Amino acid sequence: MKHAALILAGISSLTLSACVAGPAPDIAVPAPELPATFAFAPDAATAASLDALLPANDPAFADLSAKALAGAPTLLEAAARVDAAIARARGASANRLPLVTGDASITGTRTNPSQFGAGLPAGIGIDTERVAYGANLAAVWDPDIFGRLRSQERAAANLADAAGADAASIRLALLSEIAGSVIDWRTVQAREAALSEDLVAAESLVALADIRERAGIAPGFDRVRAETAAEASRTRIAALASEKARIVGRLATLTARSAQSVRNSLASDAPSADAPAPPASTPSNLLANRPDVQAAAARLAAADADLYAAAANRFPQFSLSAVLGLLAFDLGDLFDDDAVVGSVGGSLLAPLLDFGRIEAQIDGAAAGKRAAFQAYRGQVFTALGEAEAAYGLVAAADRELETAERERASAARAAELAEVRFRAGLSNFLTVLDARRAADSSGERAAASRGRAQRARVLLWQALGGDAGTPAGQDATLSTSQ
Prior knowledge:
Blueprint: H1 2-18, H2 59-71, H3 73-94, E1 99-110, E2 129-141, H4 148-214, H5 220-255, H6 259-266, H7 286-289, H8 291-312, E3 317-328, E4 340-349, H9 357-423, H10 429-463
Antiparallel strand pairs: 1-2, 2-3, 3-4
Helix pairs in contact: 2-4, 3-4, 4-5, 4-8, 4-10, 5-6, 5-10, 8-9, 9-10
């Protein structure tokens, strides 16, 4: 009769819990529609390397990037977050295994015999002082019949993957910032060199005007105008010092190094500045290359697993337990056969009337999955937009550089011809100054244009996912748990 009553109680619990049990709600997560190609991408036949977009041949970039990867606070913080996420995933995995505990105890008690009354039979005494010695080994295990713990484990593993992708994204941004800063430094150096050449040319005009003034064949005003042009070049050279200070400060922050260490790295000789061809790519490649897209996909998978775990709360939870121990009232009797005690049991916990608590958890998890899906879609289209913009910037910067180089060559030729004509007495000094001023401006603009062209390539490298790679064990494609 007792066994029948227990079986009947279990069947009743399962029947009642089945009234609220059911699968997780289906949340549609269609794959985002991607264009076939990038509008500003070069011809697919163009042979180019993604890594070539970085100034890898610049010793300053090689040194500073190595130092940053070894000790940048942002990377070390991201690595710590990855370790924490992995630890949580290990904890979720361990929850599926039995929990075994052990304990030992010594308990002393003293009893007042008066509490048993005065009418005890003859020959019966009460031991008023007693010491109990015990030791127990206990085990508890949830067989996870309906997959609640498995879903929690899957969610924790996906969040660990997301943390790894976040770290890769930080690494990508860090290398991009360092590359851009090094390019800015080289650009400032090129502008300074161009302005120094302009200053030399302006000072030669000052000397020529001074000679002509002393000879009485030119007014003093020509010399003053020539000196003004020279001072303008000196002013622009002096203004570059503030840009250098800003670049050094930014690199000190990125690399966690002193400003002097940064300056020592930047003191290396600059390699030849080039603007390599941008590589052709397809929008679908962003799903595998961009770590931020991978992180969003992993969080979507985690939200899906959380939804399954919430839905599993509708079903009964089983647990098995066992205790094996020793209990004796004399230390010498602790290992006798009579001291061995134990118990084995099982329990069932089923939701009967929770007044909507579980449904609220499921609705919250479903909303979390919908939000994670929209975050994934948003990240995909953010990546598409950044890649499109980067390709467009490269194309525009290349056209600007080509035009600036032609302008510089033309202005330099015009300045040479104007000076030759002036020395031959065929043009006045004002014409020479105007031509020199145009040549001075064109040289600095060409240097700045080359820097923008190189900068645009770094942005393209970052937009296409760089070399961060896919974190181990992570699937970058959109999927849902089954």
